[in-house]
Amino acid sequence: MTAGSTGNDGPRRIKSVQTATDVINVIKQQQGGTLAEITADLELTKATVHTYLQTLVDCGFVTRDGDQYRLGFQFVTIGEHVRNETDLYMAGHNEVDELAERTGEYTHLIAEERGREVVLYESRGEFAVAMDYHLRMRETPQHLHDTAAGKAILAHLPATRRDEIIANLEFERQTANTITDAAELRETLADIRDRGYALNDEEEIRGMRAVGAPVLGPTETVVGSVSVTGPTSRLQGERFHSAVPKQVIETANLIEVALETAQFDR
């Protein structure tokens, strides 16, 4: 067995790379910390952690100010590059801005990666609320089963991929309305495929609702979703069940046309 690999039971991995990502994730979770604080959350010696930190500082991924270590802006530049190379973002962010202006609510452009939803872009309408919640959404990929955007994607994934994701869900209850059963989720996803959009009726956060629609790529495979999120006081009745769904579906369709015709600037 080569040093740093995992043996013959699976794909080979480089242990030092895994350790470096562990250090980075601890710094993220702690929102910065001292050598001692970072080491406390790792099964490593202080000397080893110091070596990794210094290397990450040299590479620009971590900055040091006195005895405090924080993540560097290198992550911002890499993140911007990744996003700008994503066709869904380039085709969709202007449409998501317009949707926010028309609805007055928070709007999101979502992609799926590793069975979770990732916020590619968000726009804040005039009456948008819950800024802290949307900040957490951007920083931490969410499960797909308890958000409108996530369910819209999950419903339209190929069956084998959908089954794989559902099999790995923990179905943690967030509110009294959260779906916590695989059979119920499958029925809900079938309904979403039939009507073309997904609803989140206080399933993730009490007092908040959302509407999401899938975005299909040129090969008719789902590449992401668009959603509108707002308080139950505004997303209710006909607006929740008809008006906003129509607006979200229209926005998703406009993004699909842009993807199909490559009508967006790089």
From TrEMBL:
Q: Where is the HTH iclR-type domain?
A: 14-73
Gene Ontology terms for molecular function: DNA binding; DNA-binding transcription factor activity
Going by the UniProt record, its keywords in alphabetical order are: DNA-binding, Transcription, Transcription regulation
Task: Quote the InterPro entries the UniProt record gives.
Answer: GAF-like_dom_sf, HTH_MetabolicPath_Reg, Tscrpt_reg_IclR_C, Tscrpt_reg_IclR_N, WH-like_DNA-bd_sf, WH_DNA-bd_sf
Start and end residues of each IclR-ED domain? 74-261
Task: Give GO BP annotations, semicolon-separated.
Answer: negative regulation of DNA-templated transcription
Instruction: List, alphabetically, the PANTHER family matched.
Output: HELIX-TURN-HELIX TRANSCRIPTIONAL REGULATOR, ICLR FAMILY, HTH-TYPE TRANSCRIPTIONAL REGULATOR RV1719
Q: State what protein this is by name.
A: IclR family transcriptional regulator
Q: Which organism is it from?
A: Natrialba aegyptia DSM 13077
